[in-house]
Design goal:
- It is a single chain.
- Strand 1 and strand 2 form a beta hairpin.
- The chain is flat and about 75 Å long.
- The chain starts with 16 loop residues before the first helix and ends in a 6-residue tail after the last helix.
- The chain is built from 13 helices and 2 strands.
């Protein structure tokens, strides 16, 4: 009977054990600033918000932790229409961003040539302008009597959108269409950039091989390009849907009281009504709902690189 004995590799000649231990601890020291940042600016506020959500009281008398979990049920029962509206608007904007962003990302990755850098600059150019200013610009573009509304009305597009319930009368502002347009425009770069990164990594020889096998362009896209770009699709949809679901600027400036999203309710509860427990509870419900949807989406998409 033979016994196999494993030996640890000896330390480098002339290197003391203390130096080896310090070298092993270097990665952890490099992680320390990021960990401290997350603890101070993410974990601590999260714990504070969790404590606020189970408090009772008023601003005059003060709030105390009474473990009043009924706040969650009351908030959800009262504001569930805004939750559903936020999910519907964010999902619609995400689909539109994918439909608009994929062809553009494909063009930049495979067909742009020497214009690639210029197109990439144009994609990220909106980031050099304030989010608020960009949304206010859309308020001007979609203003009543403006060229966009007149053109849509002359083409009888507003008649169709009125029938679908996304516009009302001869105007676009203060309707669901305006809010979705604002969300789509503001978050479109978040869809294009991951898509471009994923498409740019695809080996062009795979397309050539598919062509040598007499595959049609549509078949090449369906069998080769799109499956290989799925990491970018998943990343882009997440980067678009998550912030869009919690956004309140577009609904505030481009919508009316009938288009308020859950972000508007949370902002109002925090800054106007001063009902901090309800606002904190709504924030946690929104976070939990998005986390659940994202988890299911990642599992269904089967993108192992992101799970």
């Amino acid at each position: 009977m033979t016994t196999t004995v494993t030996h640890e590799p000896p330390a480098a000649a002339g290197t003391p054990p203390e130096a080896t231990g310090r070298k092993r601890r270097v990665p952890y020291w490099l992680l320390l600033p990021g960990i401290l940042w997350l603890l101070v600016f993410f974990a601590a506020p999260l714990v504070y918000q969790a404590s606020t959500s189970v408090q009772t009281g008023s601003l005059e008398e003060g709030f105390k932790v009474t473990w009043h979990f009924a706040t969650y049920w009351d908030a959800l029962g009262k504001y569930y229409p805004q939750f559903l509206r936020s999910v519907a608007y964010a999902a619609t904007a995400t689909v539109l961003c994918l439909l608009l962003g994929y062809p553009l990302a494909y063009l930049i990755a495979f067909r742009a040539g020497r214009w690639r850098n210029l197109l990439m600059v144009l994609v990220i150019a909106p980031f050099f302008t304030s989010f608020l200013i960009r949304t206010l610009a859309w308020k001007t573009i979609l203003s009543d009597g403006g060229p966009v509304v007149r053109t849509l009305d002359s083409l009888h597009v507003l008649t169709v959108t009125n029938a679908l319930g996304v516009t009302e009368g001869h105007r676009v502002l203060a309707t669901p269409l305006a809010v979705v347009c604002g969300l789509t425009y503001n978050f479109l770069p978040f869809m294009i950039l991951p898509l471009y990164t994923s498409l740019e990594r695809i080996d062009s020889r795979l397309h050539e091989a598919a062509g040598d096998l007499y595959a049609r362009p549509l078949t090449v896209f369906r069998k080769v390009t799109f499956p290989l770009s799925m990491p970018g699709v998943v990343a882009g949809t997440l980067l678009t849907f998550i912030p869009a679901a919690g956004d309140y600027i577009n609904a505030e400036l481009l919508g009316s009281t009938d288009q308020k999203m859950i972000g508007n309710v949370i902002q109002s509860q925090f800054l106007r009504v001063l009902d901090y427990p309800t606002a904190a509870a709504l924030s946690f419900i929104l976070m939990a709902a998005i986390l659940a949807m994202v988890t299911v989406y990642l599992r269904k998409s089967g993108t192992e690189e992101l799970v």
